[in-house]
Design a protein that fits this description.
alpha/beta; Lysozyme-like; 6 strands; single chain; elongated; 2 domains; six-stranded mixed β-sheet
């Protein structure tokens, strides 16, 4: 089995795709998977890629999935211009993407999520694949792959989110959290001062504390 065996970052992958000749496969859809095993904790980069290659060769497969995506980057596996082996009937005219990890009980996070979403956007743009051209392995089998926690609705929501709006929301949340912290801090200091004064005057203590409840 011949594999590309190269790890790229997002910018390198975009450059690679923009100059890549996808013929004769000419993919018109993308099929998402999860590795399940190895998990994100078990993934060892090049060593894992070598192990997967040997595993597929042991099954007599002429090829495997096209990409493996994890925290460490985007791994090019089977060339994206040949038919991969990854989803039975879903192999036809598709790019098979394996997301490193087990996503039956959690969604993609961290750099893995960033890498997967970037790859999807780059491939969709280059190959003119619409949202309905994104498939899951479970569309062609009884498996949960790419994981029970990964739904089409969630993937499309994340994929089509406005990065500017998301950033603005994130920054606004930080400002709000800091303002709330400062307000609570000031209120607590006021409460302490009032308590001291009340004790000196022999009056009941009334606290003024802002909470998030």
């Amino acid at each position: 089995m011949n594999i590309v065996n190269k790890k790229l970052n997002i910018k390198e992958f975009e450059s690679y795709v923009n100059s890549f000749n996808f013929s004769p496969l000419n993919p018109s859809r993308i099929v998402l998977h999860h590795t399940w095993k190895p998990t994100t904790q078990e993934w060892q980069g090049q060593r894992s890629i070598n192990g997967l290659k040997s595993f597929y060769e042991g099954k007599g497969w002429p090829a495997g999935p096209h990409l493996f995506i994890g925290e460490d980057g985007i791994w090019l596996f089977s060339p994206m211009n040949i038919v991969g082996v990854h989803a039975g009937e879903g192999n036809t005219k598709s790019i098979g993407i394996e997301v490193v990890g087990d996503y039956d009980n959690q969604v993609w996070t961290g750099k893995t999520k960033d890498n997967v979403l970037a790859v999807l956007k780059i491939l969709k743009n280059k190959l003119n694949i619409k949202d309905n051209g994104i498939y899951f392995h479970r569309n062609f089998s009884t498996k949960s792959c790419p994981g029970n926690s990964i739904t089409k609705e969630w993937v499309l929501k994340e994929l089509n989110a406005d990065p500017g709006l998301e950033k603005a929301i994130e920054e606004a949340q930080k400002v709000y959290d800091q303002a709330l912290f400062d307000a609570n801090k000031s209120a607590n200091e006021l409460s302490k001062a009032q308590a001291s004064l009340a004790l000196l005057k022999g009056r009941p203590i009334k606290k003024y504390i802002i909470t998030t409840e």
